[in-house]
Every structure is written in structure tokens, then in C-alpha cells.
Amino acid sequence: MDANQINAPLRNLDEWEEDVLRRYPDPQTIATSKSTDHYRNYETPVRDTVKEFYRLNHTYQTFEFVRQKEKELLAFSKAKMPIWDAFDFLNQLVDDSDPDTDLSQLQHLLQTSEAIRADGHPDWMVLTGLLHDMGKVLCLFGEPQWAVVGDTFPVGCAYSDKIVYHEFFVNNPDFSDDRYNSKYGVYSHNCGLRNVHMSWGHDEYVYHMVKDYIPEPGLYMLRYHSFYAQHRENAYDHLLDDHDRNMFKWVKLFNPYDLYSKSPQPPDWNQLRPYYEDLVAKYLPTGELKF
Description:
globular
């Protein structure tokens, strides 16, 4: 596809969707700092925090814990602040669960959004890249990292062996609770992810935070970008409905940008800020979010 084709107006929504998905990224062109085979190395992670993070996460992420956090934090009664203040905080946070980078979260967000922009995707997807880890501001309110970051998975049903460090679930009370440890648990066949409670973290939080501002494909990217057991392993097909299966192509489109754009070279925020200030103003006119 040449530049004229990319920039030409599209005749309808279906054609637009096909155009975006046609530009599926080549992971090797995004992964500039190391081979794609060296990402998500959980066997020998470079930082000791990674394995300990997942031990805590898998021990304490129970169905009841998730329901409690949904009630408490989705009220968005903690604070109201300009989005740029939240970014300032993220610039101090390093994700203990991530084996691929020790840059701050703001730098990771910029690497993701800039990789999306470089491939000519719509500006709402660039904004999705910028916002996808915004929910990690929960650490600002005293939430432990094991309840904020890391891979996500359904609670209220059996834990898949495709989840990273799945062996730690043996310490989770739900692991031996007959209400929750069967294939379907509290759910039913193809019930749809909208009816499934995911382990509590930044994905669900940021989804609810911006669900009135971003198109649905972007919202799926936000809500399930850490759900590796599904978008990489298809471990929970039995819970997805037809709408989920259709929308997950967007999550899979987003994932290479999130994962492989990580590199030791931080972006120049001062240079990029004017573009992102205009982008945020377009979709979030007040410039403020409730937390």
C-alpha cells in the first residue's frame, strides 16, 4: 500500500477497519533493542522482583478480593487531576512485574504510542498506546504493585496453566474452593468477557476511566492488553462470546507495540509533548480524569 492509498478517505467503517488491521506490525521492526525471542523471559528474569511479584499476585488475587476492589476503586472517588499530573507520577514508577524494561512507565507509554504512530495507525490508537498503563497510578494511592500491574486472568474459575508462574496459585484460597476451581466456576459456556471478573489491576481501571472517550477497539486494547493467557495462548476460549472473538483481533494488533517497543533508549518527552498535548485535548477536552 503506497502513501496515497494510506491517506485516501475510506468509504465506510468496514473498509476503515480492514485498512487498520491490514497494517499488522512486524514484531522484528518494532523490537530494535533485542530479538523478539528475548522478551517475556520469565525463566531467568533480569530482575529478582519479577518472580516475587507473581508469587504475591497469584496468592492474593481471589474472587472476593477482586469484587472488593471493583466496588472501592471504580467509584473514582480518590482524586481528580489533570492527566499530565498523573504522567508526572508515572515517570517515577518502575513496574516490578516487567522483565523487559526498567524505564519509567511514562517512557514505556511513549515508546508504545510512538511505535503505533510510526506505523500510521489512527490517532485514537496512538492515544490508546499513551494511556494503556495509566491505571498504574493506583500505586499513587497506596495499592501494592501485585494488585496493579502484571498479567491478568479471570478469577472465579480455574486458573489456567498457561498463566505465567501458574504454580504459585496453589497458595491461593480459591485454588481449593469448589465454588471457583472448576473450568467454568461461577460462569457459563461462552458467557462473554463482559460478565467475567478479571484479576484486579490497571487494565480494568483504565478501561472504566476512559470508556466514554475512546472507540470500542481501543477500549478492548486497554481492558485486555495484559490478558496474555488469552490473546497469546487462547486459554479461555470457553468464556468468550462471538463479540469477544471479533474484538480480540484489536488486542492482538496492539500487543506487539506494547511488548516489543521496549528498549533502553528513553524517548524525548520535551520534544514529543506538543503533539500529545494536542492529541489529549482532542479526545479528553477537560484534560482532567477522575481517579
